[in-house]
Design brief:
By secondary structure, the protein is α/β, with parallel strands linked by helices. It has helices at 70-79, 82-86, 98-107, 123-130, 142-150, 181-191, 208-213, 231-236, 258-266; strands spanning 8-10, 26-31, 38-40, 43-47, 52-56, 62-65, 113-117, 134-138, 154-156, 166-172, 192-203, 227-228, 240-248, 277-284. The strands form 3 sheets. A 7-stranded mixed β-sheet has the order 9-8-7-10-11-14-13. Strands 2-5-6-12 form a 4-stranded antiparallel β-sheet, with no helix packed on it. A hairpin with a 2-residue loop joins strand 3 (38-40) and strand 4. The radius of gyration is 18 Å and the shape is globular.
Length: 286
Amino acid sequence: MTTPGDATPVDNDLRRDECPVCAGPVEAVGVMHLAPAIQFSSHWIAPRRPPELWRCTRCGTAFTQYALPEPAAMSLYATGDGGARWSSRAPFERTKTREALALLRRLLRPGVRVLDVGCNTGDLLDFARGLGAVTHGVEPSDASRAAARAKGHAAVASLDAAAGPFDVVTAFDVLEHLYDVPAMLSAVGATLAPGGRLVVLTGDITCAAARGAGAGWWYVQCPEHVVFPTLRALGAVPGWEVDEAVTTFADVGHEPGLMKRALAALRGRARADLHDHMLVVLKKKG
């Protein structure tokens, strides 16, 4: 594992001329002000140029301009220790919000085949197995995938290697890492059983905090995050439609306390404005 002092210089030269989700026209939002050395998985890197936040004027999706090229990112994911970076020592059910847990408990029943894309060391799959589901995962990190397998989950390195069909596919904290969201949705659709559902949790670029902070919003500062699709954009991807959606948080650690909620209410802000993530259930059309 590298340290900030020996960060590897990287050419973050990926530039897009159109929206990565709907191919619509785009415009600049602002420059992301990052430290000279930043973490990517468990690696420390030094981007050669400051990344920028841009957005689509058609669907509202935002994305990182001057991101790392996808092959470089996938190499960092594969060789990094995702478990050291993102896994919690607490059980999944103690870290996620009530909205996320209630939805999963409704969908995951004994015998249901679930595939968790970006399963890391298998925290969500542990929870799913406790509900009686048959657990499978996709994880590019060699170390994290080995940890998930050691716990008895059937984990593979890529989505095309997953042995479907699956009744439920989950992708928590994953869409923002993807370079081609429509391609991922197409691949997921090929693995879903009739009537199956895809459940995603990702940041909501339309929330009040994101609108106010622009390129300074905390969620876009992480170098691994390259796209921030809107609910409207997800519902417009060919072959898919939104079944249900709720606003929530990344985890319970981000949920504001009673005092912050009270101050927001006094300032006339809606409760939804305090939420900065969206939990979305997608189903295939037809």
